[in-house]
Protein backbone atom coordinates (compact mmCIF):
# COMPACT_ATOMS: atom_id res chain seq x y z
CA UNK A 1 0.00 0.00 0.00
CA UNK A 2 1.52 3.29 -1.08
CA UNK A 3 0.89 6.74 0.35
CA UNK A 4 0.40 9.42 -2.14
CA UNK A 5 1.32 13.08 -1.75
CA UNK A 6 -2.21 13.86 -0.76
CA UNK A 7 -2.11 11.48 2.16
CA UNK A 8 1.19 12.89 3.41
CA UNK A 9 -0.17 16.40 3.23
CA UNK A 10 -3.19 15.35 5.19
CA UNK A 11 -1.03 13.82 7.92
CA UNK A 12 1.09 16.94 8.24
CA UNK A 13 -2.03 19.07 8.39
CA UNK A 14 -3.41 17.00 11.22
CA UNK A 15 -0.11 17.21 13.09
CA UNK A 16 -0.08 20.98 12.64
CA UNK A 17 -3.56 21.26 14.04
CA UNK A 18 -2.61 19.19 17.07
CA UNK A 19 0.54 21.27 17.67
CA UNK A 20 -1.36 24.51 17.44
CA UNK A 21 -4.03 23.20 19.79
CA UNK A 22 -1.37 22.18 22.32
CA UNK A 23 0.46 25.47 21.98
CA UNK A 24 -2.46 27.78 22.58
CA UNK A 25 -3.77 28.35 26.14
CA UNK A 26 -6.62 30.72 26.97
CA UNK A 27 -6.77 31.65 30.66
CA UNK A 28 -10.17 32.81 32.03
CA UNK A 29 -10.45 36.01 34.04
CA UNK A 30 -9.88 35.42 37.76
CA UNK A 31 -7.51 32.49 37.22
CA UNK A 32 -3.77 31.99 36.70
CA UNK A 33 -2.04 28.90 35.27
CA UNK A 34 1.25 27.64 36.68
CA UNK A 35 3.37 26.27 33.79
CA UNK A 36 6.21 23.75 34.13
CA UNK A 37 8.88 23.04 31.52
CA UNK A 38 10.33 19.55 31.69
CA UNK A 39 9.09 19.15 35.27
CA UNK A 40 10.31 22.50 36.65
CA UNK A 41 8.43 25.73 37.23
CA UNK A 42 8.71 27.92 34.16
CA UNK A 43 6.16 30.77 34.28
CA UNK A 44 2.67 31.85 35.27
CA UNK A 45 0.07 32.46 32.62
CA UNK A 46 -2.12 35.53 33.12
CA UNK A 47 -5.73 35.78 31.89
CA UNK A 48 -6.02 35.96 28.11
CA UNK A 49 -4.28 34.34 25.12
CA UNK A 50 -0.99 32.52 25.77
CA UNK A 51 1.37 30.25 23.75
CA UNK A 52 3.24 27.17 25.01
CA UNK A 53 5.76 24.76 23.50
CA UNK A 54 3.94 21.49 22.92
CA UNK A 55 5.25 18.40 24.64
CA UNK A 56 7.73 20.59 26.58
CA UNK A 57 5.58 23.00 28.57
CA UNK A 58 2.69 21.79 30.66
CA UNK A 59 0.11 23.39 32.97
CA UNK A 60 0.84 22.32 36.55
CA UNK A 61 -2.10 23.98 38.35
CA UNK A 62 -5.05 26.22 37.68
CA UNK A 63 -5.24 28.64 40.61
CA UNK A 64 -8.27 30.81 41.34
CA UNK A 65 -7.35 34.35 42.37
CA UNK A 66 -10.83 35.13 43.64
CA UNK A 67 -11.87 35.23 47.29
CA UNK A 68 -12.91 31.80 48.49
CA UNK A 69 -15.25 30.84 51.32
CA UNK A 70 -14.56 27.95 53.70
CA UNK A 71 -16.91 26.63 56.37
CA UNK A 72 -15.28 25.92 59.73
CA UNK A 73 -16.90 22.74 61.10
CA UNK A 74 -18.41 22.75 64.58
CA UNK A 75 -15.75 22.42 67.26
CA UNK A 76 -16.04 21.39 70.91
CA UNK A 77 -14.22 23.84 73.16
CA UNK A 78 -13.47 23.85 76.90
CA UNK A 79 -13.31 27.45 78.10
CA UNK A 80 -10.95 28.77 80.76
CA UNK A 81 -13.70 28.50 83.39
CA UNK A 82 -14.32 24.83 82.41
CA UNK A 83 -17.52 25.36 80.44
CA UNK A 84 -18.04 22.99 77.51
CA UNK A 85 -19.35 24.77 74.42
CA UNK A 86 -19.45 24.16 70.68
CA UNK A 87 -18.80 26.75 67.99
CA UNK A 88 -18.48 27.01 64.22
CA UNK A 89 -17.69 29.75 61.77
CA UNK A 90 -16.79 30.79 58.27
CA UNK A 91 -13.46 31.90 56.77
CA UNK A 92 -12.68 33.94 53.65
CA UNK A 93 -9.26 33.73 52.00
CA UNK A 94 -7.62 34.84 48.77
CA UNK A 95 -4.53 33.56 46.93
CA UNK A 96 -1.90 36.23 46.38
CA UNK A 97 1.01 34.14 45.06
CA UNK A 98 -0.08 31.19 42.89
CA UNK A 99 3.42 29.72 42.82
CA UNK A 100 3.63 29.41 46.63
CA UNK A 101 0.02 28.20 46.78
CA UNK A 102 1.02 25.42 44.37
CA UNK A 103 4.45 24.35 45.65
CA UNK A 104 4.49 25.32 49.37
CA UNK A 105 1.42 23.40 50.54
CA UNK A 106 -0.62 20.46 49.43
CA UNK A 107 -4.34 21.11 49.14
CA UNK A 108 -4.43 24.76 50.23
CA UNK A 109 -8.18 24.89 51.16
CA UNK A 110 -7.87 21.83 53.37
CA UNK A 111 -4.79 23.27 55.09
CA UNK A 112 -6.51 26.60 55.78
CA UNK A 113 -9.61 24.82 57.13
CA UNK A 114 -7.55 22.74 59.54
CA UNK A 115 -5.62 25.80 60.64
CA UNK A 116 -8.88 27.67 61.32
CA UNK A 117 -10.27 24.82 63.45
CA UNK A 118 -7.19 24.59 65.67
CA UNK A 119 -6.93 28.37 66.00
CA UNK A 120 -10.60 28.56 66.97
CA UNK A 121 -10.12 26.05 69.78
CA UNK A 122 -6.98 27.79 71.04
CA UNK A 123 -8.47 31.28 71.09
CA UNK A 124 -11.80 30.36 72.65
CA UNK A 125 -10.16 27.98 75.12
CA UNK A 126 -8.14 30.85 76.58
CA UNK A 127 -11.26 32.92 77.35
CA UNK A 128 -14.07 32.63 79.86
CA UNK A 129 -17.64 31.90 78.82
CA UNK A 130 -18.91 35.42 79.50
CA UNK A 131 -16.11 36.90 77.38
CA UNK A 132 -16.84 34.49 74.54
CA UNK A 133 -20.52 35.38 74.50
CA UNK A 134 -19.99 39.13 74.75
CA UNK A 135 -16.78 39.69 72.74
CA UNK A 136 -17.25 38.08 69.35
CA UNK A 137 -15.44 40.93 67.61
CA UNK A 138 -12.38 40.28 69.76
CA UNK A 139 -12.47 36.56 68.92
CA UNK A 140 -12.81 37.31 65.21
CA UNK A 141 -9.86 39.70 65.29
CA UNK A 142 -7.59 37.20 67.10
CA UNK A 143 -8.59 34.39 64.73
CA UNK A 144 -7.92 36.57 61.71
CA UNK A 145 -4.53 37.64 63.00
CA UNK A 146 -3.42 34.05 63.70
CA UNK A 147 -4.73 32.68 60.39
CA UNK A 148 -3.23 35.52 58.34
CA UNK A 149 0.21 35.01 59.88
CA UNK A 150 0.12 31.26 59.14
CA UNK A 151 -1.13 31.52 55.56
CA UNK A 152 1.40 34.17 54.50
CA UNK A 153 4.00 31.47 53.74
CA UNK A 154 1.45 29.67 51.55
CA UNK A 155 0.91 32.63 49.27
CA UNK A 156 -2.60 33.28 50.60
CA UNK A 157 -4.23 35.82 52.88
CA UNK A 158 -7.15 35.32 55.29
CA UNK A 159 -9.44 38.29 54.68
CA UNK A 160 -12.23 37.63 57.21
CA UNK A 161 -13.20 35.13 59.89
CA UNK A 162 -16.62 35.19 61.50
CA UNK A 163 -17.95 33.10 64.38
CA UNK A 164 -21.32 31.85 63.23
CA UNK A 165 -22.79 29.93 66.18
CA UNK A 166 -21.84 29.46 69.84
CA UNK A 167 -23.82 26.80 71.68
CA UNK A 168 -23.44 26.58 75.48
CA UNK A 169 -24.89 23.57 77.36
CA UNK A 170 -28.61 23.60 78.19
CA UNK A 171 -28.09 24.03 81.94
CA UNK A 172 -25.89 27.07 81.35
CA UNK A 173 -28.49 28.52 78.99
CA UNK A 174 -31.19 28.10 81.65
CA UNK A 175 -28.98 29.65 84.32
CA UNK A 176 -28.26 32.60 82.02
CA UNK A 177 -31.97 33.04 81.39
CA UNK A 178 -32.67 33.14 85.14
CA UNK A 179 -29.83 35.61 85.65
CA UNK A 180 -31.16 37.82 82.87
CA UNK A 181 -34.68 37.72 84.32
CA UNK A 182 -33.38 38.62 87.79
CA UNK A 183 -31.40 41.53 86.36
CA UNK A 184 -34.42 42.83 84.49
CA UNK A 185 -36.61 42.50 87.60
CA UNK A 186 -34.00 44.44 89.54
CA UNK A 187 -33.97 47.21 86.94
CA UNK A 188 -37.77 47.32 86.94
CA UNK A 189 -37.88 47.66 90.74
CA UNK A 190 -35.27 50.42 90.63
CA UNK A 191 -37.26 52.28 88.00
CA UNK A 192 -40.47 51.90 89.99
CA UNK A 193 -38.73 53.16 93.15
CA UNK A 194 -37.31 56.14 91.26
CA UNK A 195 -40.73 56.88 89.81
CA UNK A 196 -42.38 56.72 93.25
CA UNK A 197 -39.67 58.95 94.68
CA UNK A 198 -40.11 61.48 91.89
CA UNK A 199 -43.87 61.37 92.34
CA UNK A 200 -43.59 62.05 96.09
CA UNK A 201 -41.19 64.92 95.42
CA UNK A 202 -43.55 66.43 92.87
CA UNK A 203 -46.52 66.06 95.21
CA UNK A 204 -44.59 67.66 98.08
CA UNK A 205 -43.51 70.52 95.82
CA UNK A 206 -47.11 70.98 94.70
CA UNK A 207 -48.35 71.07 98.29
CA UNK A 208 -45.62 73.55 99.18
CA UNK A 209 -46.58 75.85 96.31
CA UNK A 210 -50.27 75.51 97.22
CA UNK A 211 -49.52 76.35 100.87
CA UNK A 212 -47.54 79.41 99.78
CA UNK A 213 -50.37 80.57 97.55
CA UNK A 214 -52.96 79.95 100.28
CA UNK A 215 -50.86 81.86 102.81
CA UNK A 216 -50.50 84.72 100.35
CA UNK A 217 -54.25 84.68 99.70
CA UNK A 218 -55.00 84.72 103.44
CA UNK A 219 -52.56 87.56 103.89
CA UNK A 220 -54.20 89.60 101.16
CA UNK A 221 -57.65 88.78 102.54
CA UNK A 222 -56.56 89.91 106.00
CA UNK A 223 -55.20 93.12 104.52
CA UNK A 224 -58.49 93.68 102.71
CA UNK A 225 -60.47 93.00 105.91
CA UNK A 226 -58.24 95.38 107.82
CA UNK A 227 -58.67 98.06 105.18
CA UNK A 228 -62.44 97.56 105.13
CA UNK A 229 -62.63 97.71 108.94
CA UNK A 230 -60.56 100.86 108.98
CA UNK A 231 -62.77 102.50 106.36
CA UNK A 232 -65.91 101.50 108.27
CA UNK A 233 -64.46 102.84 111.50
CA UNK A 234 -63.61 106.12 109.79
CA UNK A 235 -67.09 106.32 108.30
CA UNK A 236 -68.75 105.65 111.68
CA UNK A 237 -66.50 108.18 113.34
CA UNK A 238 -67.56 110.71 110.71
CA UNK A 239 -71.20 110.09 111.55
CA UNK A 240 -72.17 107.81 108.61
CA UNK A 241 -73.75 104.42 109.34
CA UNK A 242 -74.37 103.36 105.73
CA UNK A 243 -71.11 101.43 105.46
CA UNK A 244 -71.81 99.73 108.80
CA UNK A 245 -75.28 98.71 107.61
CA UNK A 246 -73.78 97.32 104.42
CA UNK A 247 -71.28 95.12 106.22
CA UNK A 248 -73.84 93.91 108.73
CA UNK A 249 -76.15 92.98 105.87
CA UNK A 250 -73.34 91.18 104.11
CA UNK A 251 -72.55 89.10 107.21
CA UNK A 252 -76.25 88.34 107.57
CA UNK A 253 -76.51 87.01 104.02
CA UNK A 254 -73.34 84.94 104.48
CA UNK A 255 -74.78 83.44 107.68
CA UNK A 256 -77.98 82.49 105.89
CA UNK A 257 -75.99 80.92 103.08
CA UNK A 258 -73.96 78.89 105.59
CA UNK A 259 -77.16 77.63 107.25
CA UNK A 260 -78.67 76.71 103.89
CA UNK A 261 -75.57 74.80 102.74
CA UNK A 262 -75.27 72.79 105.97
CA UNK A 263 -75.68 69.04 105.40
CA UNK A 264 -77.33 68.48 108.77
CA UNK A 265 -79.74 71.42 108.63
CA UNK A 266 -83.10 70.46 107.14
CA UNK A 267 -85.33 73.20 108.59
CA UNK A 268 -84.35 76.88 108.73
CA UNK A 269 -86.32 79.32 110.93
CA UNK A 270 -85.78 82.99 110.24
CA UNK A 271 -86.35 84.99 113.45
CA UNK A 272 -86.13 88.34 111.74
CA UNK A 273 -88.09 90.23 109.16
CA UNK A 274 -87.03 89.30 105.63
CA UNK A 275 -88.05 92.73 104.50
CA UNK A 276 -84.98 94.02 106.32
CA UNK A 277 -82.86 93.03 103.32
CA UNK A 278 -84.15 96.14 101.61
CA UNK A 279 -82.29 98.15 104.25
CA UNK A 280 -79.07 96.71 102.97
CA UNK A 281 -79.89 97.84 99.46
CA UNK A 282 -80.66 101.30 100.79
CA UNK A 283 -77.36 101.40 102.66
CA UNK A 284 -75.47 100.49 99.46
CA UNK A 285 -77.29 103.31 97.66
CA UNK A 286 -76.23 105.81 100.34
CA UNK A 287 -72.61 104.69 99.99
CA UNK A 288 -72.74 105.10 96.20
CA UNK A 289 -74.17 108.61 96.59
CA UNK A 290 -71.47 109.61 99.06
CA UNK A 291 -68.63 108.14 96.97
CA UNK A 292 -69.72 109.55 93.61
CA UNK A 293 -70.79 112.97 94.92
CA UNK A 294 -74.49 112.37 95.13
CA UNK A 295 -74.73 114.42 98.40
CA UNK A 296 -74.03 118.12 98.96
CA UNK A 297 -70.51 119.13 99.90
CA UNK A 298 -70.20 119.36 103.66
CA UNK A 299 -73.66 117.90 104.31
CA UNK A 300 -74.11 115.80 107.43
CA UNK A 301 -75.04 112.19 106.60
CA UNK A 302 -78.62 111.29 107.48
CA UNK A 303 -79.31 108.04 109.31
CA UNK A 304 -81.36 105.50 107.31
CA UNK A 305 -85.02 104.91 108.05
CA UNK A 306 -85.93 102.07 110.38
CA UNK A 307 -87.22 99.98 107.48
CA UNK A 308 -83.71 100.06 106.07
CA UNK A 309 -82.18 98.23 109.00
CA UNK A 310 -79.73 95.49 108.29
CA UNK A 311 -80.99 91.93 108.25
CA UNK A 312 -81.02 90.44 111.71
CA UNK A 313 -81.59 93.87 113.35
CA UNK A 314 -84.95 95.52 113.99
CA UNK A 315 -85.68 99.20 113.72
CA UNK A 316 -84.92 99.61 117.41
CA UNK A 317 -81.52 97.98 116.86
CA UNK A 318 -80.67 100.51 114.19
CA UNK A 319 -81.67 103.32 116.53
CA UNK A 320 -79.45 101.75 119.19
CA UNK A 321 -76.50 101.94 116.81
CA UNK A 322 -77.29 105.60 116.10
CA UNK A 323 -77.15 106.37 119.79
CA UNK A 324 -80.79 105.95 120.97
CA UNK A 325 -80.46 104.50 124.46
CA UNK A 326 -84.20 103.77 124.67
CA UNK A 327 -84.28 101.42 121.68
CA UNK A 328 -85.07 97.74 122.11
CA UNK A 329 -83.56 94.66 120.58
CA UNK A 330 -85.03 92.39 117.88
CA UNK A 331 -87.22 90.50 120.42
CA UNK A 332 -88.25 93.57 122.49
CA UNK A 333 -85.59 93.22 125.13
CA UNK A 334 -83.75 96.22 126.44
CA UNK A 335 -80.09 96.07 125.45
CA UNK A 336 -77.62 96.41 128.22
Keywords:
52% helix; rod-shaped; 336 residues; 4 domains; disordered C terminus; 8 strands; three-stranded antiparallel beta sheet; Tetrahydropterin Synthase, Chain A; single chain; alpha+beta
Structural class computed from helices and strand pairing? alpha+beta
* Integer average pLDDT: 77
Beta percentage is 15-25%
Shape-level CATH architecture of the largest domain: 2-Layer Sandwich
Tally the beta strands. 8
Any idea what the shape is? rod-shaped
Q: Quick one: CATH superfamily of the largest domain?
A: Band 7 domain
Q: Give the count of helical stretches.
A: 9
- Strands of the biggest beta sheet: in what spatial order? 3-2-5
- Measured between the Cα atoms of the first and last residue, the distance is 178 Å
Cα Rg:
57 Å
Proportion in helices: 40-55%
Question: What characterizes the major β-sheet?
Answer: 3 strands, antiparallel
CATH topology of the largest domain: Tetrahydropterin Synthase, Chain A
Q: Ranges with pLDDT <50 over ≥5 residues? A: 294-336
CATH structural class of the largest domain: Alpha Beta
Order of helices and strands: HEEEEEEEHHHHEHHHH
Description:
The structure is a single chain. With 336 residues, this protein is α+β, with helices and mostly antiparallel strands. It is 52% helix and 19% strand. It has four domains: 23-65, no CATH class; 68-168, Band 7 domain (Tetrahydropterin Synthase, Chain A, 2-Layer Sandwich), CATH 3.30.479; 170-237; 239-336, no CATH class. The strands form three sheets. The chain has a three-stranded antiparallel beta sheet. Helix 3 (108-125) crosses helix 5 (136-151) and helix 7 (242-261) packs across helix 8.
Amino acid sequence: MSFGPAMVALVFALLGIVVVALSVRTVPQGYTFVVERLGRYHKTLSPGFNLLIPFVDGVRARVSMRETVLDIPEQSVITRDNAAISANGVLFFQVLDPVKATYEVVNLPRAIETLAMTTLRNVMGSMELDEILSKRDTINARLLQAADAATASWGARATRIEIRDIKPPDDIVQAMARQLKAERDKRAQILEADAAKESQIRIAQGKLEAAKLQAEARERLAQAEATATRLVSEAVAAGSTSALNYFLGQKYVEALQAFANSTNQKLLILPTDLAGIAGTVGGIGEIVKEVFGGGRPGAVPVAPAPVGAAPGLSAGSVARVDGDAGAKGPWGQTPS
